[in-house]
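Design a sequence for this backbone.
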């Protein structure tokens, strides 16, 4: 090797690692904070990543995502949010309801935040208004905590002879009492009694179903709760074992074998969160991005479960169902 070739070889050896390091330094980092757990969020994560891809960002290529999961334990969220904002984040995404969004907002007033919440983000102080959020946060409201009355009405339609309906409530969820208030008002308007069952652990979920069987309670509505989302399979299995007609909030419950669900298309919501995150990565400001509202509500029925429960489904009800899973 002559002197010129030796110098070129040394330059190649030195410059290549520096170029790789430079690329790593310029790759944006997205923090992903969730009150849920990975196992119950896989389809939603795929939708979120699809939104990022449509915005020009591919995880592992020109984007890094740091994940933190609370697993339904809301008290873990503040520490997880603080841990994430210590990283050089380009944007912080909070999902799994209001507790995650509020933890993110408390952890940083500068890092852009894209949230998915179930309640009114103006009322909870996340944004100044829907059209002009102001500050460092925007996102979508999925209305999961404000549909209890609607779900209760559908459940009553399925089991009209049930004078008492159970209402399973996550007592640790910050919006539990407002959910209960709405459900109680709906029950009064329907001429029903509401039997409230509180659970925030696996043991308490099991105990609640033991109570349902003992009383007995023929129909059950589950309140919206990230903790319940992390226990989806358990809830569906217990309802099937004890032959309880049960209403859930998201399609994923019906897919898992639950009888019926009513709520927004959560996959669509996570896709839209990905699109917003991509826009912020390209330079958009959260303050200028309006808070998105749900565009699609879906009533989903698992026909196999309905047959197992021997429910007499009316044609009028079936005509309103958006998706039948058989």
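Sequence:
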């Amino acid at each position: 090797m002559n002197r010129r070739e030796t110098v070129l070889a040394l330059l190649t050896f030195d410059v290549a690692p520096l170029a790789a390091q430079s690329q790593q330094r310029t790759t944006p980092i997205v923090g992903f904070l969730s009150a849920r757990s990975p196992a119950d969020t896989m389809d939603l994560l795929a939708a979120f990543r699809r939104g990022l891809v449509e915005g020009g960002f591919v995880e592992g290529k020109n984007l890094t995502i740091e994940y933190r999961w609370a697993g339904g334990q809301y008290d873990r969220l503040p520490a997880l949010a603080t841990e994430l904002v210590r990283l050089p984040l380009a944007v912080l995404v909070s999902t799994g309801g209001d507790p995650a969004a509020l933890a993110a907002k408390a952890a940083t007033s500068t890092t852009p935040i894209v949230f998915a919440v179930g309640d009114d983000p103006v009322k909870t102080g996340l944004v100044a208004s829907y059209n002009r959020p102001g500050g460092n946060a925007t996102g979508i409201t999925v209305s999961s905590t404000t549909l209890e009355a609607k779900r209760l009405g559908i459940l009553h339609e399925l089991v009209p002879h049930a004078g008492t309906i159970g209402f399973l409530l996550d007592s640790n969820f910050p919006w539990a009492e407002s959910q209960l208030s709405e459900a109680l008002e709906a029950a009064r308007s329907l001429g029903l009694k509401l039997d409230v069952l509180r659970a925030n652990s696996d043991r308490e979920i099991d105990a609640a179903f033991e109570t349902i069987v003992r009383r007995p309670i023929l129909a059950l509505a589950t309140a919206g709760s990230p903790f319940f989302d992390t226990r989806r399979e358990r809830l569906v299995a217990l309802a099937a074992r004890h032959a309880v007609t049960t209403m859930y909030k998201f399609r994923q419950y019906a897919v898992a074998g639950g009888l019926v669900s009513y709520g927004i298309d959560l996959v669509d919501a996570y896709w839209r969160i990905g699109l917003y995150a991509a826009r912020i990565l390209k330079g958009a400001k959260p303050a200028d991005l309006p808070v998105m509202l749900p565009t699609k509500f879906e009533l989903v029925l698992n026909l196999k479960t309905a047959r197992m429960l021997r429910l007499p489904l009316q044609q009028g009800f079936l005509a309103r169902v958006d998706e039948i899973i058989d």
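The longest strand covers residues 29-34.
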